[in-house]
Design goal:
Rossmann fold, alpha/beta, 8 helices, about 35% helix, binds zinc ion
Length: about 270
Protein backbone atom coordinates (compact mmCIF):
# COMPACT_ATOMS: atom_id res chain seq x y z
CA UNK A 1 0.00 0.00 0.00
CA UNK A 2 1.50 3.32 -1.05
CA UNK A 3 1.85 6.32 1.16
CA UNK A 4 -1.31 8.35 1.66
CA UNK A 5 -0.36 12.02 1.58
CA UNK A 6 -3.44 14.14 2.18
CA UNK A 7 -2.32 16.79 -0.31
CA UNK A 8 -1.94 14.30 -3.15
CA UNK A 9 -5.36 12.66 -2.81
CA UNK A 10 -8.74 13.45 -4.34
CA UNK A 11 -11.61 14.41 -2.04
CA UNK A 12 -13.42 11.10 -2.63
CA UNK A 13 -10.26 9.20 -1.67
CA UNK A 14 -10.16 11.11 1.60
CA UNK A 15 -13.84 10.37 2.19
CA UNK A 16 -12.99 6.70 1.73
CA UNK A 17 -10.13 6.94 4.24
CA UNK A 18 -12.48 8.57 6.76
CA UNK A 19 -14.96 5.72 6.22
CA UNK A 20 -12.04 3.34 6.90
CA UNK A 21 -11.44 5.11 10.25
CA UNK A 22 -7.95 6.19 9.16
CA UNK A 23 -5.55 7.89 11.53
CA UNK A 24 -4.70 11.43 10.47
CA UNK A 25 -1.09 12.34 11.23
CA UNK A 26 -0.70 16.12 11.53
CA UNK A 27 3.05 16.82 11.67
CA UNK A 28 4.19 20.06 13.30
CA UNK A 29 7.74 21.35 13.61
CA UNK A 30 9.63 24.59 13.07
CA UNK A 31 11.55 26.84 10.70
CA UNK A 32 14.50 27.86 12.82
CA UNK A 33 18.25 28.21 12.95
CA UNK A 34 20.20 24.93 13.16
CA UNK A 35 23.75 26.19 13.56
CA UNK A 36 26.27 26.94 10.81
CA UNK A 37 25.99 23.53 9.13
CA UNK A 38 22.26 22.72 8.79
CA UNK A 39 19.37 24.46 7.00
CA UNK A 40 16.47 26.01 8.89
CA UNK A 41 14.04 23.38 7.56
CA UNK A 42 15.51 20.52 9.63
CA UNK A 43 12.70 19.96 12.12
CA UNK A 44 9.97 20.21 9.48
CA UNK A 45 11.82 17.89 7.12
CA UNK A 46 12.41 15.30 9.82
CA UNK A 47 8.85 15.41 11.19
CA UNK A 48 7.58 14.91 7.65
CA UNK A 49 9.94 12.01 7.00
CA UNK A 50 9.13 10.21 10.25
CA UNK A 51 5.40 10.71 9.57
CA UNK A 52 5.64 9.28 6.07
CA UNK A 53 7.70 6.27 7.12
CA UNK A 54 5.40 5.54 10.06
CA UNK A 55 2.28 5.82 7.90
CA UNK A 56 3.74 3.45 5.32
CA UNK A 57 4.60 0.91 7.99
CA UNK A 58 1.25 1.20 9.77
CA UNK A 59 -1.07 1.32 6.83
CA UNK A 60 -1.82 -2.37 6.34
CA UNK A 61 -2.75 -2.67 10.03
CA UNK A 62 -4.23 0.80 10.56
CA UNK A 63 -5.13 3.00 7.58
CA UNK A 64 -3.21 6.26 7.96
CA UNK A 65 -3.04 9.54 6.04
CA UNK A 66 -0.48 12.32 6.53
CA UNK A 67 -1.27 16.04 6.37
CA UNK A 68 1.37 18.53 5.19
CA UNK A 69 3.61 19.66 8.03
CA UNK A 70 2.76 22.83 9.94
CA UNK A 71 6.19 24.25 9.27
CA UNK A 72 6.37 26.95 11.96
CA UNK A 73 6.19 26.43 15.69
CA UNK A 74 7.18 27.99 18.99
CA UNK A 75 10.76 29.07 18.30
CA UNK A 76 11.16 32.23 20.35
CA UNK A 77 14.24 30.73 22.02
CA UNK A 78 16.02 30.52 18.63
CA UNK A 79 15.34 34.09 17.51
CA UNK A 80 18.75 35.51 18.58
CA UNK A 81 20.52 33.47 15.89
CA UNK A 82 18.46 34.64 12.90
CA UNK A 83 16.66 32.70 10.19
CA UNK A 84 13.85 31.77 12.54
CA UNK A 85 10.08 32.19 12.14
CA UNK A 86 8.17 31.85 15.39
CA UNK A 87 4.48 31.56 16.17
CA UNK A 88 2.87 32.28 19.50
CA UNK A 89 0.90 29.59 21.33
CA UNK A 90 -2.50 31.13 20.61
CA UNK A 91 -1.81 31.06 16.87
CA UNK A 92 -0.55 27.48 16.91
CA UNK A 93 -3.59 26.38 18.91
CA UNK A 94 -5.84 28.27 16.50
CA UNK A 95 -4.32 26.49 13.50
CA UNK A 96 -4.71 23.07 15.11
CA UNK A 97 -8.25 23.85 16.29
CA UNK A 98 -9.17 24.48 12.65
CA UNK A 99 -7.30 21.40 11.37
CA UNK A 100 -8.83 19.03 13.94
CA UNK A 101 -12.30 20.52 13.48
CA UNK A 102 -12.02 20.09 9.72
CA UNK A 103 -10.99 16.44 9.80
CA UNK A 104 -13.61 15.67 12.45
CA UNK A 105 -16.31 17.19 10.25
CA UNK A 106 -15.20 14.87 7.44
CA UNK A 107 -15.64 11.83 9.68
CA UNK A 108 -12.12 11.14 10.92
CA UNK A 109 -11.93 10.30 14.63
CA UNK A 110 -8.22 9.70 15.24
CA UNK A 111 -5.62 12.48 15.05
CA UNK A 112 -1.94 12.19 15.90
CA UNK A 113 -0.16 15.52 16.28
CA UNK A 114 3.38 14.40 15.49
CA UNK A 115 5.87 16.92 16.77
CA UNK A 116 9.44 17.39 15.57
CA UNK A 117 10.57 20.43 17.58
CA UNK A 118 11.55 20.69 21.24
CA UNK A 119 9.88 24.07 21.73
CA UNK A 120 6.50 22.54 20.80
CA UNK A 121 6.51 19.68 23.31
CA UNK A 122 4.49 21.33 26.05
CA UNK A 123 2.28 23.14 23.54
CA UNK A 124 1.36 19.88 21.79
CA UNK A 125 0.26 18.34 25.08
CA UNK A 126 -1.80 21.44 25.83
CA UNK A 127 -3.37 21.35 22.35
CA UNK A 128 -4.25 17.66 22.67
CA UNK A 129 -5.95 18.39 25.99
CA UNK A 130 -7.75 21.52 24.81
CA UNK A 131 -9.02 20.02 21.55
CA UNK A 132 -10.09 16.76 23.21
CA UNK A 133 -12.25 18.78 25.59
CA UNK A 134 -13.59 21.12 22.89
CA UNK A 135 -14.24 18.79 19.99
CA UNK A 136 -16.47 15.76 20.42
CA UNK A 137 -16.07 12.31 18.89
CA UNK A 138 -12.36 12.58 18.25
CA UNK A 139 -9.21 11.35 19.96
CA UNK A 140 -6.21 13.68 19.72
CA UNK A 141 -2.82 12.23 20.63
CA UNK A 142 0.32 14.36 20.97
CA UNK A 143 3.67 12.69 20.30
CA UNK A 144 7.21 14.02 19.91
CA UNK A 145 8.95 11.49 17.74
CA UNK A 146 12.24 11.24 19.62
CA UNK A 147 10.51 10.96 23.00
CA UNK A 148 8.22 8.18 21.77
CA UNK A 149 11.30 6.45 20.33
CA UNK A 150 13.73 7.30 23.15
CA UNK A 151 14.63 3.74 24.12
CA UNK A 152 15.32 2.83 20.47
CA UNK A 153 17.39 5.91 19.65
CA UNK A 154 19.72 5.85 22.65
CA UNK A 155 21.60 2.76 21.52
CA UNK A 156 22.25 4.31 18.08
CA UNK A 157 23.85 7.50 19.42
CA UNK A 158 27.38 8.03 20.78
CA UNK A 159 27.48 11.68 21.84
CA UNK A 160 24.01 12.33 23.19
CA UNK A 161 21.22 10.28 24.79
CA UNK A 162 18.57 11.45 22.33
CA UNK A 163 17.89 14.05 19.63
CA UNK A 164 19.36 17.45 20.52
CA UNK A 165 19.36 20.65 18.55
CA UNK A 166 21.58 20.43 15.44
CA UNK A 167 23.76 17.77 17.08
CA UNK A 168 24.65 14.18 16.24
CA UNK A 169 21.12 12.92 15.57
CA UNK A 170 19.65 15.75 13.50
CA UNK A 171 22.86 16.14 11.51
CA UNK A 172 22.90 12.39 10.79
CA UNK A 173 19.30 12.31 9.60
CA UNK A 174 19.85 15.33 7.34
CA UNK A 175 23.05 13.77 5.96
CA UNK A 176 20.91 10.82 4.91
CA UNK A 177 17.93 12.77 3.55
CA UNK A 178 19.48 15.89 2.06
CA UNK A 179 23.29 15.69 2.04
CA UNK A 180 23.52 18.65 -0.34
CA UNK A 181 21.99 20.86 2.38
CA UNK A 182 24.56 19.88 5.02
CA UNK A 183 27.84 21.78 5.22
CA UNK A 184 30.15 19.09 6.62
CA UNK A 185 33.36 21.01 5.90
CA UNK A 186 34.13 21.85 9.53
CA UNK A 187 31.81 19.91 11.82
CA UNK A 188 34.27 19.47 14.74
CA UNK A 189 34.46 23.24 15.22
CA UNK A 190 30.68 23.42 15.79
CA UNK A 191 30.75 21.23 18.90
CA UNK A 192 29.20 22.69 22.06
CA UNK A 193 28.27 21.23 25.42
CA UNK A 194 24.81 19.74 25.28
CA UNK A 195 23.62 20.98 28.66
CA UNK A 196 19.93 21.75 29.10
CA UNK A 197 20.27 22.82 32.75
CA UNK A 198 19.97 26.45 31.62
CA UNK A 199 16.21 25.86 31.64
CA UNK A 200 16.18 24.89 35.32
CA UNK A 201 15.91 26.89 38.52
CA UNK A 202 16.04 25.50 42.03
CA UNK A 203 15.49 21.75 42.43
CA UNK A 204 12.82 21.20 39.79
CA UNK A 205 11.57 24.53 38.55
CA UNK A 206 11.42 25.93 35.05
CA UNK A 207 13.05 29.15 33.94
CA UNK A 208 12.68 30.38 30.37
CA UNK A 209 15.85 31.47 28.62
CA UNK A 210 16.79 31.62 24.97
CA UNK A 211 19.49 29.49 23.39
CA UNK A 212 22.02 32.32 23.35
CA UNK A 213 22.43 31.66 27.07
CA UNK A 214 23.78 28.14 26.46
CA UNK A 215 25.39 27.97 23.00
CA UNK A 216 27.64 30.30 21.03
CA UNK A 217 26.59 29.06 17.60
CA UNK A 218 23.08 27.61 17.97
CA UNK A 219 24.23 23.98 18.24
CA UNK A 220 23.72 21.60 21.17
CA UNK A 221 26.13 18.67 21.02
CA UNK A 222 28.73 17.37 18.62
CA UNK A 223 27.69 17.17 14.96
CA UNK A 224 31.06 15.68 14.00
CA UNK A 225 29.84 12.31 15.30
CA UNK A 226 27.08 12.28 12.67
CA UNK A 227 26.84 10.02 9.64
CA UNK A 228 24.27 9.35 6.96
CA UNK A 229 24.21 5.65 7.85
CA UNK A 230 23.36 6.53 11.43
CA UNK A 231 20.71 8.92 10.14
CA UNK A 232 18.91 6.17 8.25
CA UNK A 233 18.97 3.96 11.35
CA UNK A 234 17.55 6.78 13.48
CA UNK A 235 14.74 7.48 11.02
CA UNK A 236 13.83 3.79 10.89
CA UNK A 237 13.84 3.47 14.69
CA UNK A 238 11.79 6.64 15.15
CA UNK A 239 9.20 5.63 12.57
CA UNK A 240 8.99 2.11 14.03
CA UNK A 241 8.05 3.66 17.36
CA UNK A 242 5.41 5.93 15.81
CA UNK A 243 4.03 3.00 13.79
CA UNK A 244 3.67 1.00 17.01
CA UNK A 245 1.90 3.93 18.66
CA UNK A 246 -0.55 4.22 15.76
CA UNK A 247 -1.25 0.48 15.58
CA UNK A 248 -1.75 -0.01 19.33
CA UNK A 249 -5.51 -0.13 19.89
CA UNK A 250 -4.93 1.20 23.42
CA UNK A 251 -3.81 4.49 21.88
CA UNK A 252 -7.31 5.14 20.59
CA UNK A 253 -9.39 3.39 23.25
CA UNK A 254 -12.18 5.29 25.01
CA UNK A 255 -11.45 6.52 28.51
CA UNK A 256 -13.11 4.46 31.25
CA UNK A 257 -15.44 6.17 33.72
CA UNK A 258 -14.70 4.53 37.05
CA UNK A 259 -17.20 6.56 39.08
CA UNK A 260 -19.88 4.66 40.90
CA UNK A 261 -23.37 6.07 41.33
CA UNK A 262 -22.42 8.48 44.08
CA UNK A 263 -20.25 9.28 47.09
CA UNK A 264 -21.74 10.22 50.45
CA UNK A 265 -25.08 9.40 48.83
CA UNK A 266 -24.83 12.45 46.56
CA UNK A 267 -24.99 11.36 42.89
CA UNK A 268 -22.38 12.48 40.40
CA UNK A 269 -23.49 14.86 37.70
CA UNK A 270 -23.49 13.13 34.31
ZN1 LIG B 1 15.92 20.65 15.21
Amino acid sequence: MGLHEWANLKAHELRALAADDAVVIAPVAAMEQHGPHLPVQVDSRLATEVSHRAANKAHDTQPTVVLPVVWAGLSEHHMPFGGTITLDYETLLGVFRCIVNSVQRHGFSKVLILNGHGGNIDACKMMAQQLSVEISEITVIAATYWLEAASRLESLLEDQPNVMHAGEAETSMMMHLAPDLVDDSDLPSHRTTADLSFLLAGEASFRWRDLASVTSNGVLGDPSTASGTKGEQLLEAASDAICDLICDSQTWSAAPDLRGDHTAEVPFHR
